[in-house]
Write a structure and sequence with these properties.
The complex is a heterodimer of chains A (334) and B (323). By secondary structure, chain A is mostly helical. Chain A is 70% helix and 3% strand. In chain A, strand 2 and strand 3 form a beta hairpin. The two termini of chain A are 27 Å apart. Chain B is mainly α and 323 residues long. Chain B has one domain. Classes of the chains: A mainly alpha (334), B mainly alpha (323). The interface between A and B is large, with 48 and 46 residues.
Chain lengths: 334, 323
Amino acid sequence: MTTLDATAPGRRGLPAWLTRPSVGLVVIIALMIAVFSITAPGFLSPFNTFAISRELSVAIVLGYAMMVVLGVGGMNLAVGSIGVCVAMATAGLQAAGVPVLVSVAGGLVCGAFLGGLNGVIVVRTGLSSFMITLATMSIYFGAMLLLSGAQAIRNLDPAFVAFGRARIAGTVPLMFLVAVAIAVALTYLYRATDIGRQMLFTGANPKAAELSGVPVVRAVILAHALSGLLAGVAAIMLTARTGAGVPSMAGQIGRDWLLPAFIAPVLGGSALAGGSVAIVGTFLGATLVAILGSGLRMVNIGDFWIELFLGIILLVAVLADRARSLWSSGDVGR
Amino acid sequence: MIRDRLLRLARTENAGLVAILLIAVVALTVANPAFLTSFNLYVVLTSVSLWTCVALAQMTTLATGQMSLSVGSLGGLVAIVVGGLCELWGVPLPLAIIAGLAVGLAGGLLNGALIATSGINSFIITLATFSAFHGLTLGLTRAIPFYHMPDALKALGNARFGAVPFMLGIVLVVALAVHIIFTRTRIGRHMLAYGGNPTAAVLSGLSTKRAVIFAHALSGLLSAIAAILTVGRLQIAQPTIGEDWLIVSFAAPIIGGASLSGGHVSVPGTLLALALLAVINDALVLLGVDPFWVQVVLGCLILAVVGANRLREGRRLGEAVAR
């Protein structure tokens, strides 16, 4: 029930729930929490849980921004660039005195537009989304620098910054609820709506989808627009958390967001080839990354080694997944 | 007869790039004669020299229809290995360079072996090793550069003969070697055959694993050369070397005529593309344009070129079908 798959092959031998990536992720996450709560005193303190779940909320939504384009068999290298554009647009509107909700809506429209533009270029040219979004990540980022003068915007609306700090019952950040709400909405989109199913059919086999009357062009453009919108949500959450719109928040041309955006859905079991999305898996993938990062920092291994651990975990996860799928399809006679 | 020859010339693959490059150079010279000063040409050629091996490193993986996101982070790792060996342990420069090249080769071999044996998409494998190499670089150095590089290494990156940097000689030799590998050797043809049509390559009995591993190993070696030249040029071994390689590493080979789906690459085309990028960059500086335009222009250029290639391919396909 966690992985929605248009082409799910029937795996024999093991019960279906055991062969799911999510189960492995839950086990690893539980082990990590156990290890860190013993080795790092204060790991489970309300303060640290709050800090982890704030970080986590951004990572989950960012993972979804990539997941939705992976679902149609594409990718979006411009998530970071779009995110920064949205952050600067929202912050700029607030600095100009626009009400908070209007500024957020403006930012989100900007994100959906930039993402949708990627989608339009992809379907119009028929080129790979890798190449298109590689080009637009540079263009969007350059345009953002030209418009903002590469200056951070710090005079945000106090209500907006308060949203970044708001917590429920002492430990749960308000923005975590936003991430959960988005997960629920995406589950509804992919399970219960036509357009959600059309996106997955398009990703599984674009030609077959087109021949069977699926509006492939619309599905691809919508997936890219949704990706831009979600990248925008992640950026707005991060802006509220840091209290400023910063042009360098995702690194040069937004490249610092690439790894976190890909790692959550890939760990969660979304196929790069398209046709399936792992909504719960992406959630768990982002959780694993956030807990690992926080734990390593608390046991004083430090920020510098985190990327090495992330790389190794990603490698082990995809290799294990590969071995498992070869093994479980072995009796089908391949 | 001359007309025939001109027509044939115009149909060759790189004619478009040569024409655009010439127009850009002439226009820029007219707009600002400072372009032709020896120092400015030296700046342009230095930029071409520094980027050549970066672009070739990506080009070799593109030949097999794959890619390597780890070109830059492997370069960063090589840079700090060479810098660390020289500064901390006083290893003689030639040995440090050999060690750096070995690290690059090993990183590339690791990528190739993982991809070839697991059959997992090169994007995912190299995303993971990109992260691992970068993490290793940051962890080993705590993000602090090595400042004291041997004089010979600094000279390597800064020696010049008038407008021609010494590095240009090195990278032209390297580029020629890569060109020969792809045009004259069996392994080169195997890499291209695998990239052009993996199934056909397997069916015709090629060792596809060897082709994939060789391509990634060569790519790693080329990123190591690029990293060592960059350290020589900057005169310090920065852990951030390679962080900005991603876009150019794809842009130059693609603008130079390589296809993302594999099977076709061009060393001369890649060099011309780098020259064009360097001239455009120089133009923005000479004409006093806001440097932020660089990103926008680079992105638009990529879109324009891949779009034009697509149109040309479509037309060729159309002709073939019509026949």
